[in-house]
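Quick one: structure tokens for this chain, please?
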Amino acid sequence: MNSTIYTEKQFNPSNRLTIAAKTASEKQKTDLNQILIIGRIVILLLTVGLMGYTKDRLLNAIHHSSFWL
């Protein structure tokens, strides 16, 4: 749990708004980071899948080509 010691300045309403805005922007950053991480994982999976598909097609083409006869 996060425990914060508040100074007298932080109880000023305008400072509280600033703290709330900072907290909101930090939350947005973490949300964005999670989206980026998920995006990277999806791209990685798609790339690996595409590579496997291409490799199978390539091996199939080599196997069935008349070049080896």
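The chain is about 75% helix and 0% strand.
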